[in-house]
Amino acid sequence: MSIKTSGLHHVTAIGGDPQRNADFYLRTLGLRLVKTTVNFDDPGTYHLYYGDQSGKPGTLMTFFPWRDAPSGRHGTGQATTTSFSVPENSIGWWKQHLEATGLDTGRVTNRDNEDTLTFTDPDGLKLALVAHPQGDPRDPWDTPLVPAEHAIRGLHSVTLSVSKEDATAEMLTDGIGLDFSEQDGNRFRFAAGDGGPGALVDVLVTPDAPRGLVASGTVHHVAWRVPDEQTQVAWREELVDRGVNVTSILDRQYFRSIYFREPGGTLLEMATDEPGFAIDEPLLELGRSLKLPPWLEPTREQIEASLPKLELPAENNLERK
Fold it and tell me: Looking at the whole model, is its pTM more than 0.85?
């Protein structure tokens, strides 16, 4: 593969009640809601994007929250853990903070000199906070509930669970341009560029685990960064030439996307860095109102009537923090 990704763009998961989802990711984790829109393929549900102040690629966690969605099953063929990057000396603060909200957390573990704290969100999605010893230069979203010195910097990594690793490893290296980094037992780490937070994926080999079921509390897909549309076109052509079943380029309003499955079963996306989330509302007002792409605007009234009301805390607004 002649083209290489620079790292993670976003992770998209399926949630339950949208208000509970927003409260957790805005207030408990201290992220910012940078876009309130709908699932373009199913406009009867929200698509909520959480990230840093402007929603830069590599900081984004997004959700399709269906209130009545059945619970999924964690297993092979899916991304089973989404990890966020936090400052090196903040894991203790986060453990106290999360437990004060009633969450159960695992014990703090250390792997590859990174302290890690695991927990689940209200729908059972597996999450982790990871403190990288070399730090993370990305600026956080600063709120009174999660001060900047402890705040999440962005995505750290994702873990893909597979029954065997060979074909998945080949896709990660030859298909999207990652490099094999290291092995720790049945865990294989791959990195984009120089590695570090936001550019890592772990492949966990669990041959005896059940096949995962994507529903509430599970990851729907993992997106990797593409710098621009021209590169994306070339990338798609290379993947097709390799025999990969790739979608056409889809307009997601804030980026352009192609989708395909790696051999282990996880749905992957290649998403452009441009144009970003400020194309239809100012930075100060990101996430406050429902934004629809032009082709859905004619049905705005029906869409708004079908969506549950969503109340955002004041911390989501720059001038009201």
Answer: yes
